[in-house]
Amino acid sequence: MEKVKEGRGMRKRFSLVTVISLVLLSLVAGSLLNNVISGDSIYEQINKFKDVLSITEKYYVEEVDTQKLTEAAVKGVLGQLDPHSVYIPASQLERVKEQFRGSFEGVGIEYSILNDTLMVVAPIVGGPSEALGIEAGDKIVKIDDTSAVGITSQGVQQKLRGPKGTKVKVSIVRTGMKNLLDFVITRDKIPLYTVDASYMVDDRVGYIKVTRFAAKTHSEFVEAVSRLKDAGMKRLVLDLRTNAGGYLEQAFKVADELMPKGRKIVYTKGRRKEFNEEYISTGAGRFADASLVVLVNNGSASASEIVAGAIQDWDRGLIVGETTFGKGLVQRQFDLKDGSAFRLTTARYYTPSGRLIQRDFGKDRQDYQRAAYQRDEEEGENVTHEAEKDTSRPEHLTLSMGRTVYGGGGITPDYIVKGDRINQYTVQLLSKLAFLEFADKYLEKKEAAIRAKYADSEKYVIGFEVTQEMLDNLLSIAQAREVEFDKEMYEKDLKYIKAYVKAFVARRIWDREGYSRVMLSVDHQFKKAVTLFPEAEEISRNLSSLK
Question: What is the pTM of this model?
Fold first, then answer.
């Protein structure tokens, strides 16, 4: 209790001292002063805030938390700028940094809590759990000799994450084993992969799925491209769907791998000259001369749009799917002394033809977010971009063929193909872990037979059939998990429900590749994409002749 009391008192004194620096950074960066009192100096505004905070702490009818008030003020400042300038509390910052660093320190498992039991969905490749032989489907029932039954996700983070070099003991129940298996895991740095899947679809077509642009995305992408080229890849489907972005530099490096030398890929402009940059392809790309189709959707944003915009502007390949989110702003992160941080928009980025793809913010931030997912697009060929001709968006010309493309509203595909949509019943099956539990129970008896019958995930996708008995078992699990059966929705989504059953089984055996292969087999956008390589090759012919 003494430490708690002392901490609260110090927090108040510390907050009053640090308020000035917090607000100074926010106000200077945001150029907000003219909206507060025109002509006043920044120091007068800081003094105003200090006076308000100090008087509030002294006289307010109840005790106040000055740190909370300060954070609210910072959020208010950033909220007056744009939807992408945001405050990150200290409690969230480390997790955010992990996502962009591409690693964290821990035992290296993907997990789920199934019926109060901590289950290993998959050991992370290259992590210490994989090295020890911990397998998908293992159930961790003890951690450091203490029961893990009923553990929460927060408890998993607290007990299994930790500094590199430290040790933790886990006791595991494994199907087919009578006794508990004990492992002492030495925690290590665990990679967070951004290339989610990469494999050959057939003897010529390769597929690479990039989920975000973090510190190691380029190196992961190069490794994937090199491996697939060695396997005979001549055509590539690059899947950037639901990739919300990340580091601009990593987006440039990935695009550079796909471009001839000397092509502008992206450039930025800010109020301050130090934020003006140009990114030109180096000619060192490993896949600059092969056929390319890029898949995008309304969840593709920022760095994803940089790659897609460069490909489209140079007529390097075809963009297929749905119009992207429309985020054309560049943020830089500024760390604060109390362990928090904020991201501030410092520049706008433009595609090679000069397009700013940022959408209008409007007045309502929620409407701004929703608008990206509520577009009513008509499917079909859009190489000449007739779909956008009646809009007020600014026109630009592609740099190889001179096609008209449009700015100010994301990247609209050259072929508009709507994505598959599952209904509420299937969403409930996923969120209540019904598919995961089915796969766990099914593989208790069938895993050895499946491994013996199918040499790899490709053969499994072709040969494995979901039976009615399997579906009945799934529905029994769903009922036990309080998912109310809806016959109409079930029948409408049966194709996808079967695919999820098959995919969750495949993931346990062949990890992400197995899951991905199954889901692509019912993926409308992907199926269309692989038919469009002749058109992609036709559109990119002029690029190689440009000097």
Answer: 0.86
